[in-house]
Design brief:
The structure is a single chain. By secondary structure, the protein is α+β, with helices and mostly antiparallel strands. Helix content is 52%, strand content 16%. It has a four-stranded antiparallel β-sheet, covered by helices on one side. Strand 3 and strand 4 form a beta hairpin. The longest helix has 27 residues. The two termini are 17 Å apart.
Length: 166
């Protein structure tokens, strides 16, 4: 199925988002879950924020690309994704407003707490669904890594992973 050119940057960002998640998952497997790391996808690639050796980022990115192309689609979805946080915030806000009602708001406070906690619990599986259908795409047969560069020092270090379609 051909993608309309107006949607090309959106699809590229979704594909890079999947590769970003997979890369971070592999870095965390190698360095441990206490590694301070974050990522952000853009149409031309993605950024990894954290004080990491370039060799670790490069190796993880290339392996992530290979494994996603090999069918390991689950690497594209992360429980730490900002999508999950956004879904949790929206659901908790809506649930709180609905539970608060129009009168006796202070008396409804226990309902508000229960409603918002329930919404946050529901957000994890819903966030993963939104990742699968809206914010990431592990379908990357033509995606290639064009280059990796590091900038900044210490805790302000980041890597830019540039991608391209072949």
């Amino acid at each position: 199925m051909a993608v309309k050119s107006g949607f090309a940057p959106v699809m590229a960002t979704r594909q890079n988002h999947a590769l970003e998640h997979a890369t971070i998952a592999l870095i965390l497997q190698r360095t441990g879950v206490n590694t301070k790391i974050a990522g952000r996808a853009v149409a031309g690639g993605f950024y990894i924020y954290g004080n990491l050796p370039t060799a670790v980022v490069e190796e993880a990115a290339h392996e992530a690309l290979r494994r996603l192309k090999g069918g390991e689609r689950e690497l594209a979805y992360s429980p730490f994704c900002g999508t999950n946080l956004a879904v949790a915030g929206v659901l908790a806000g809506v649930a709180s407003i609905l539970a608060m009602g129009g009168r006796n708001r202070l008396l409804n406070f226990p309902r508000v707490l229960i409603a918002s906690m329930s919404a946050v619990l529901a957000a994890q599986p819903l966030g993963k669904l939104i990742q699968k259908h809206l914010t990431t795409s592990p379908d990357i047969p033509d995606l290639e890594i064009a280059g990796i560069s590091k900038s900044g020092l210490g805790p302000w270090a980041s890597h830019k992973i540039e991608t391209m379609l072949r």
